[in-house]
Amino acid sequence: MKFSTILVYTLLLTLLVFGCFPNKDKPEYITIGAILPLTGADSDEGVRALNGLQIAKQEINEKGGILGKKLDIIVLNDRGDKEYVLQQYSVLKEKGVAAIISSGNPDIAMILAKVSAADDIPIFSPSAVNPLTEGQNGELADFEKSYFGNFSQIPLSDSAAAYRCVYTIAETIRNAEK
């Protein structure tokens, strides 16, 4: 046999053997998504929310993650554009996120809630309330209770509300595993 043929077979055998064993040093992740206004008129809200997400992610991972898995957050810009939001949603859906945090814009949050219902991806919005989903006496209808982590009743900054959304998602995932 030629040296090059032996070398190729050796490399293939090495790849086969080591490729069959998972790398135990590689951490597993639970990934959530966020679609925030990072540019445009509401970018101040989006940047504050992003800061809250980053702080919550760091704290959760320092405490061991969620069910022993590291938390990862994929943040995408919604541009404040209702049609673009749907494209960004598709990206997060393809990535297999466990949940999505939306901006406080009620129109964008409602768009995401409607498309995500069919995909069984919960949407959390720190402050979006849509009058079409309010029940009697201003209470939130069951639809909004199901799809929104609504914190509009609590006077929180965008940063604190986004931070709270991450912790709510983490707790929901932990409780679902019990």
Q: Tell me the overall shape.
A: globular
Give the strand order of the largest sheet, numbering strands 1, 2, ... along the chain. 2-1-3-4
Distance from N terminus to C terminus (CA atoms, Å) equals: 58 Å
User: What's the rounded overall pLDDT mean?
Assistant: 76
CATH superfamily: Response regulator
Counted beta strands: 4
Give the ordered list of helices and strands.
Answer: HEHEHEHEHH
Enter the CATH topology name: Rossmann fold
Radius of gyration: 21 Å
Which sheet architecture does the biggest sheet show?
A: 4 strands, parallel
Low-pLDDT ranges: 132-156
Using the coordinates above, name the CATH class.
Alpha Beta
Which bin fits the share of residues in helices?
40-55%
Name of the CATH architecture: 3-Layer(aba) Sandwich
Number of helices: 6
Strand-pairing-aware structural class: alpha/beta
Strand content: 5-15%
What does this structure look like?
Helix 3 (82-95) packs parallel to helix 4. The protein contains six helices and four strands. Mean pLDDT is 76; it is low at 132-156. It has helices spanning 3-19, 43-62, 82-95, 106-119, 142-147, 158-176; strands spanning 29-36, 70-77, 100-102, 123-124. The chain has a four-stranded parallel beta sheet with strand order 2-1-3-4, with helices on both faces. The protein is an alpha/beta fold and 178 residues long. The longest helix is centred in the first third of the chain and has 20 residues, at 43-62. The chain has one domain: Response regulator (Rossmann fold, 3-Layer(aba) Sandwich), CATH 3.40.50. The protein is globular.
